[in-house]
Amino acid sequence: MKNISEWTPANDPSFFDKDILAFDLDDTLTQNLVLNIETMTLLEEAQKNGLKTVLVTGRPFGWADALVRLLPFSAAIAENGAIIFEKIDASSENVDCWFWTAAKGYSKDLVPQERMGELHSLRTEVLKMFPRVKIASDQAARIYDVAFDFAERVHPKLSFKQAQEIADYCEAKGFTAKVSSIHVNVWRGMFSKREALEFLIEGIWEKNLQNNVLYVGDSPNDAPLFAAVDASVGVSNIRSFLDEGLNFPLPKYVTNSSYGKGASEVIRHKLKHL
Fold it and tell me: For the CA atoms of the chain, what is the radius of gyration?
């Protein structure tokens, strides 16, 4: 990973094409669940300079519905790609929402809860197999997935390797599982952060995911988007996964600072070159 300072118009001919800034939430924009106020101010400044801002998170429908209305985001993707919100204008009332369906892909018309019975059975199995794991505190606000908490309310935290063991167990059962900095998110369905962001960028905004997006994240569940865009950035705390020996596609650049301060560093760097 190169330092973010090396991402410049001189080194990247498409630097100025990156007019969409997309961010993971937990431990990318936040630290200990606290949003960095400077980052929110910089996101607003980015929008005033003609950039679009997107939240891309494993957090639930209920959280993203509120965050996209209250904070300076042009759109939000929730539950690791199951749900997409787009703010139509500055009004918090004008928000379109798409839901993933097995039959139709993304649709405004349906809010399915497909195969939830299987997820409930899996939840019981995982809690027996891994007794220190908890169900995430935001589970009631979710539509598509089960989130197993290994680091948010679990003290002492489980290691990332232990979290990966949970994910591997779920995938062996035929589910999709992704490890974030705090949760293991598990679902049925062919959606992901990448598919959702691609639908938003290319299907709705008629831009190009690879060329027009700068993506910022902190963990293995961001890896598909690190690989999908030309310019990707990890906030410095991404190194904690590497320290535990986890291997996944890395971002091209890394910040000097961690958490929300790292996200602020990215936005300031972009604005400096506008």
Answer: 18
